[in-house]
Amino acid sequence: MAFNNPLPNVLVLGHSCVARLWNDIRFNHDPSHLHHNFGLAQATVPFLGFRGGVIQTLIEDVHDRLRQEILQHSPSLVILQIGGNDIDRPDFDIEGYVRDVLYLIDLLQHHYLVLSVVVCEIFPRCSTRHIPCHEYQEIKDRITLDLNSELSHTSNACLWRHREGLMTRDEYSLVDGVHLNQAGTRRFYRSLRGIVMQFFPL
Who contacts 160 (Cβ-Cβ below 8 Å, separation ≥6)? Predict the structure, then answer.
């Protein structure tokens, strides 16, 4: 699903994992590991992370942060990492969440004219607040299957499955059991770079 020579403008959008990754990139002292543009020449790659964000945070966009980011950078590709905070809520509804994700994709593509959207698989958690960890994992896996099925019918949106052990190893989590540690953050970065390289091959 590579683009035919558009400007390589990418928006990485999501919850606190995106915000934390952007902080690590900004304050990175070893540029051989993390690049703000994933190594793409003349690329624009802003990161917009909402700490504590859920899917409705992005849809409602109360403070116009998403709108302003898109209008400023006009991304052709949006990479979405969201969902963990949604699942860990006592009133969570799988079908409603999937509908909201599909609505957000439609909003990005038809209102903001984004060419393609990649929805990343939700990260596992070793600690939860409102539901048991095993239930969180079961819901996460169900969402992966449902979104993969829904998005398989379109050519301009898809589901991305993280590799490099991010989905199976708790060694990449901080002690809070929710956020990624340094090693996990670097693997998250490499996974995102894999998406970008598929759309904008060097």
Answer: 79, 118, 119, 120, 121, 191, 195
